[in-house]
Specification:
Keywords: ATP-binding, DNA replication, DNA-binding, Helicase, Hydrolase, Isomerase, Metal-binding, Nucleotide-binding, Primosome, Zinc. It catalyses: Couples ATP hydrolysis with the unwinding of duplex DNA by translocating in the 3'-5' direction; ATP + H2O = ADP + phosphate + H(+). GO terms for molecular function: 3'-5' DNA helicase activity; ATP binding; DNA binding; hydrolase activity; zinc ion binding. 30% of the residues lie in helices and 23% in strands. By secondary structure, the protein is an alpha/beta fold. It is globular and about 90 Å long. It binds adenosine-5'-diphosphate and zinc ion.
């Protein structure tokens, strides 16, 4: 493809104005043509400000022959207002955006907004004004002001950021600022980051580790596409080993991106990184302040940020000179974005590495079935670390049969697990109880009339949170105060909690082991990097005996004194009939089991289940991952499910149930029907109502050789839908 746009061609003598085609980042229309003002030179990739009606919008100059051929009259062309003083988007970056737009059936502006997030880049001011509250408080204290002082201790940010953090209006913060109760800070957004030192603090790798590290280093020296599955059991030193790859990328002067699944994880990770490389990496995640975001974006785009550690959104940033991507815990579901552009960061990472020709390392102890398959068929290189570092042995996994040794009524910890907790406590060691359910109880039921308390906006139960005395919907965030009486029949004291959440398990632990110090770890209690840090310190300093947590504790943490893991309910994940349920359960339980016995002291894992013979549980107990993967792959192949076939989901939604249903039927009726392309449904989507919208799903199943996206695009393009109906497209949906 030509990269120079037509207006750059010398000898153009038509007398027409020079024009460019611009993809607007925030408009539903476009791309649009604009005239290039005298004295301005523009090439594809340049970031520009252009007029649209009365507004000034940001856009990116795009190569497009039609800018010349499609005749918008010169007189109708409006001129580009300004060229931003920002690094242009490279060819590779534009090709990646086009690929993602095609593959994920998303609009180009939606993809580009991930590369150029407005607040990060576009204001060219060199500094941002931030405030922090002084100690001295005003005499007149309203409730909102009190809340601001409580929540903002030591915190610095813009008025908007402080208001959001304190959950008060911006007016409250502005009032305090104007009243002289805040310090003002001018934060530069172009301050350079310290370069990491590849040799700051190297560890001695074991022979196996060194061997794998050497292969990674060689791959980086090759400067070509190399997809690598770094397949090592938990605690085998995957991080230490891929740090050697990071070091090599730094030596080569290439940028390196480390993708991590959870924001809460970045804190211990950043410290570990700083120890190895002498300085922290550049972090990118949704919790950044505007000033931090802008500074990071600039450094990423101009190449002065060497190593970037980020959540999935960092994948689409316009790196100047990227030479390596590492996806840590690559099987994690949080790499899949479930709104907007529904991409899988793991897959985009591989595509980006392919397009820009550099190695990509997927690190995991329990790879996604798809990644495992790619290694099996030789598309990915598998590098294995089969043993834990330093002779630590893998923990024993034993089932606790809930039918043979059941817990007491309305209790969830069975006698063998209670005993194990007691023994561990007596030895002065730590335990972890895993249950992937936030709150106190997943369901609140009226004993009198049988009414279940549901979210008004979603087809989901309201979950009781006793710590905050509230009921909360985990899908839309709707909260209400805990009720005293049944909203249906009005009976007093008739509401009962059904089933356990982590808070309820904590109560049970407190009753059974009154001497144990326990801590609940969920996104409700660990909601900031500082909280995560506090948690790590408490556990590391042995101030905690029993950790009770959701999937937030299954990853990344390394606690040498933690020797017992109890899985409260191994069967939960297998309910629901989702085809990926077995894989997900296997990964989750393996990961949480991997927290036990990571140092000298051996660990053990007790898995409570009603069905010890289920293949997932049996495989976990036998420690036979590969047999499990082989069986899973065989059943996927039989059904032609991914990775052997392809899937796409269409979620059709409206606030009006009949309208959504009607639209879904209409779309279903016009579905193309050809060999290797089958459409199932419509049926109510897995969450049939979400945020007040009724949802129906059509599922596309396609043979690998069929151009599925094109068929979907051709199918949907001519369809006109009522205003209130939305269609969300999910290519390679995670659940199926
Ligand atoms: P994984 O990422 O595979 O779970 P880590 O890289 O986190 O494993 O290593 C597990 C623990 O063992 C960490 O505390 C790490 O610092 C330590 N470790 C691993 N390899 C070495 C090594 N070669 N020398 C010293 N410590 C190591
Ligand atoms: Zn809801």
């Amino acid at each position: 493809a030509s990269t120079a746009p037509s207006m750059q061609k010398p000898g153009q003598t038509t007398g027409r104005k020079q024009r460019v085609r611009v993809v607007l980042l925030t408009a539903v229309i476009g791309p649009l043509d604009y005239a290039v003002p005298q004295g301005m030179t523009l090439t594809p990739g340049d970031i520009v400000t252009v007029p649209l009606g009365p507004r000034q919008l940001t856009g990116v100059v795009w190569e497009d022959e039609r800018a010349e051929t499609e005749d918008v009259e010169d007189s109708k062309l409006r001129p580009v207002i300004a060229k931003a003083g920002l690094p242009p988007l490279s060819d590779e970056m534009r090709r990646l955006a086009e690929w993602a737009s095609d593959y994920y059936l998303a609009s180009l502006p939606n993809v580009l907004r991930m590369a150029i997030p407005g607040s990060a880049a576009l204001k060219e001011a060199r500094e941002i004004t931030e405030y922090s509250l002084k100690d001295e408080q005003p005499d007149r204290m309203t409730d909102a002001r009190k809340q601001a002082y409580e929540r903002l201790e030591g915190r610095q940010g813009t008025v908007r950021e402080l208001a959001a953090a304190a959950e008060v209006s911006e007016g409250v913060i502005r009032g305090l600022v104007n009243g002289g109760f805040a310090d003002t800070h001018l934060v530069p957004t172009d301050a350079p980051f310290d370069p990491p030192d590849p040799d700051a603090d190297q560890v001695d790798l074991s022979d196996t580790q060194q061997d794998v590290a050497n292969q990674l280093v060689d791959a980086i020296k090759e400067k070509s596409f190399a997809p690598i599955l770094l397949d090592g059991v938990t605690g085998s030193g995957k991080t230490e080993v891929y740090f050697e790859a990071v070091a090599e990328a730094i030596r080569q002067g290439r940028q390196c991106l480390v993708l991590l699944p959870e924001i809460a994880l970045t804190q211990p990770f950043l410290e570990r990184f700083a120890k190895r490389f002498g300085t922290r990496p550049v972090a990118w995640h949704s919790g950044l302040r505007q000033s931090e975001r802008r500074r990071a974006w600039q450094a990423i785009a101009n190449g002065s940020a060497h190593v970037i550690v980020g959540a999935r959104s960092s994948l689409f940033l316009p790196y100047q000179n990227l030479g390596l991507i590492i996806v840590d815990e690559a099987h994690e579901t949080s790499f899949k974005q479930e709104d907007g552009v529904r991409y899988n960061a793991r897959d985009v990472a591989v595509m980006r590495a392919h397009m820009e020709r550099f190695p990509v390392i997927l690190a995991s102890a329990t790879p996604a079935i798809e990644s495992h398959h790619m290694a099996e068929i030789g598309q990915y290189q598998r590098l294995s670390l089969p043993a834990r570092f330093g002779g630590a042995i893998m923990p024993d996994i034993t089932p606790v049969n809930l039918i043979e040794t059941p817990p007491e009524r309305n209790h969830w910890i069975a006698p063998p697990l209670v005993e194990a907790l007691e023994e561990t406590l007596e030895r002065g060691e730590q335990s972890l109880l895993f249950l992937n359910r936030r709150g106190y109880a997943p369901l609140t039921l009226c004993r009198n009339c049988g009414h279940r308390i549901e979210c008004p906006n979603c087809s989901a139960w309201m979950v009781e949170h006793r710590l905050t005395h509230r009921l909360a919907c985990h899908h839309c965030g709707h909260v209400m105060p805990m009720l005293d009486s049944c909203p249906e029949c009005g009976a007093e004291d008739s509401l009962v909690a059904c089933g356990p959440g982590v808070e309820r398990i904590a109560d049970e632990v407190a009753a059974r082991l009154p001497d144990a110090r326990s801590i609940v770890v969920t996104s409700d209690t660990i909601w900031s990097p500082a909280k995560a840090e506090e948690f790590v310190q408490q556990v590391t300093n042995n101030m905690v005996d029993i950790i009770i947590g959701t999937q937030l504790v299954t990853k990344g943490y390394h606690f040498p004194n933690l020797t017992l893991v109890g899985v409260i309910d191994a069967d939960i994940g297998l309910e629901g009939g989702d085809l990926r349920a077995a894989e997900r359960s296997f990964q989750q339980i393996s990961q949480v089991a991997g927290r036990a016995g990571r140092a000298e002291k051996p660990g053990r894992v007790l898995v409570q289940t009603r069905n010890p013979e289920a293949p997932v549980i049996a495989a976990l107990i036998a420690g036979d991952r590969d047999a499990f993967y082989a069986a899973e792959l065989a059943s996927r192949e039989m059904a032609m499910m991914p990775p052997f076939g392809r899937l796409g989901a269409l979620i059709i939604s409206s606030e009006d149930q009949a309208e959504a249903n009607e639209a879904a039927r209409m779309i279903g009726h016009s579905a193309p029907d050809f060999d290797g392309f089958t459409v199932y449904g419509p049926a109510p989507a897995p969450l049939s109502m979400l945020r007040g919208r009724y949802r129906f799903r059509l599922l596309v199943h396609a043979r690998r050789t069929v151009p599925m996206q094109k068929a979907i695009r051709d199918w949907l393009d001519p369809i006109k839908l009522p205003q209130g109906v939305r269609v969300a497209l999910d290519v390679d949906p995670y659940s199926f």
